[in-house]
Amino acid sequence: MARESVRGGRGGEREERHGEIRFIDGGTVTTPRGFSSGATYAGIKTYAEDKLDLGLLLSQRPSSVAGVFTTSAIRSPSVRLTEERVSQGKARALVVNSGVANACVGEQGYTDAQDTTAEAANRLGLRPEEVLIGSTGIIGVELPMALIRAGIRRIELSEDGGHHLARAILTTDSHPKEGAVSFQLRGKTITIGGIAKGAGMIHPNMATMLSYLTTDGEVEAAFLQRALKGAVDASFNMLSVDGDTSTNDTVLIFSSGAAEAGPIEEGSPYGDLFQDALGQLCVHLAKEIARDGEGATKLIEVTVEGAKTSSAARLAARTVVSSSLVKCAVHGADPNWGRIIAALGRSGAEVEEGKIALYVNDVCIMEDGRPIPFHKDGVVALMRGAEVSFRIRLNLGQGRATAWGCDLSEEYVTFNSAYTT
Amino acid sequence: MARESVRGGRGGEREERHGEIRFIDGGTVTTPRGFSSGATYAGIKTYAEDKLDLGLLLSQRPSSVAGVFTTSAIRSPSVRLTEERVSQGKARALVVNSGVANACVGEQGYTDAQDTTAEAANRLGLRPEEVLIGSTGIIGVELPMALIRAGIRRIELSEDGGHHLARAILTTDSHPKEGAVSFQLRGKTITIGGIAKGAGMIHPNMATMLSYLTTDGEVEAAFLQRALKGAVDASFNMLSVDGDTSTNDTVLIFSSGAAEAGPIEEGSPYGDLFQDALGQLCVHLAKEIARDGEGATKLIEVTVEGAKTSSAARLAARTVVSSSLVKCAVHGADPNWGRIIAALGRSGAEVEEGKIALYVNDVCIMEDGRPIPFHKDGVVALMRGAEVSFRIRLNLGQGRATAWGCDLSEEYVTFNSAYTT
Question: What is the ipTM of this complex?
Answer without folding.
Answer: 0.77
